[in-house]
Design brief:
Distance between the termini: 30 Å
CATH class: Alpha Beta
Strand content: 5-15%
Number of strands: 5
CATH architecture: 3-Layer(aba) Sandwich
CATH topology: Glutaredoxin
Strand order of the largest sheet: 1-5-4-2-3
Largest sheet: 5 strands, mixed
Shape: globular
Length: 209
């Protein structure tokens, strides 16, 4: 029994060592007083952000290993200079539409690729619609969802969240990760040799605070 307990603590030592090294003001900062009712990791991003595009595979791995019951939420923003606010708002709605569909990750990837790989521009909602249709979504269903109360409400909520943390000085660029609506991760302070594991350890640490 003693050997089993000893082995258990040996296995946990790397996690404890990492947690002990996490400091407010270094790897993370407190940007809000309250916390969300349900544990969440929220990514503030833009389809026009090249860093967000490069982080896609990274976040895909991370969110698969989040503790059970933790929500991973994507929040599109509209303040990048690569496109008009109207176009970015349209893509916030497109994200909300994609999130209602079973192939949402494929569609999100296609929107990223349209901008960063094909180097194409969104001139109208028709361009966005074409991406959905090319990825197996019925055009009429897309039209209906884009006009729906639910999608418009979600897009407005993204904007509200964006403005809230921008006013607090917590959202100055993307990607930005905020845990439980309270803690902002400083990606630059993570272990460069083992960024993915350090990021996961920090998430677990913050989710447990």
């Amino acid at each position: 029994m003693k050997k089993t307990i000893s082995l258990f603590f040996v296995l946990l030592m790397p996690l404890f060592a990492s947690a002990a090294n996490y400091q407010e003001g270094k790897q993370y900062s407190t940007v809000n007083e309250g916390v969300t009712m349900v544990p969440e990791v929220r990514e503030y991003f833009s389809f026009y952000c090249p860093h967000c595009f490069r982080f896609e595979p990274f976040f895909s791995k991370v969110k698969k290993d989040l503790p059970e019951g933790t929500n991973f939420i994507r929040n599109h923003v509209d303040f990048l200079r690569m496109a008009s606010t109207e176009t970015q708002d349209m893509l916030s709605k497109a994200l909300a539409v994609a999130q209602q569909l079973p192939n949402k990750e494929k569609i999100i990837g296609a929107i990223f690729n349209y901008i960063h790989v094909q180097r194409a521009k969104f001139d109208s909602e028709k361009d966005v619609r074409n991406i959905f249709v090319l990825n197996g979504v019925d055009g009429a269903k897309f039209d209906k969802l884009m006009k729906s109360f639910m999608v418009n409400a979600k897009a407005k909520k993204m904007k509200k969240n964006q403005d809230y943390f921008a006013q607090k000085g917590a959202l100055t660029g993307v990607p930005t990760i905020i845990v439980n609506g309270k803690y902002k991760i400083n990606m630059q302070a993570l272990d460069k040799k083992n960024t993915e594991q350090d990021f996961k350890n920090l998430l677990n640490y913050l989710l447990a605070l």
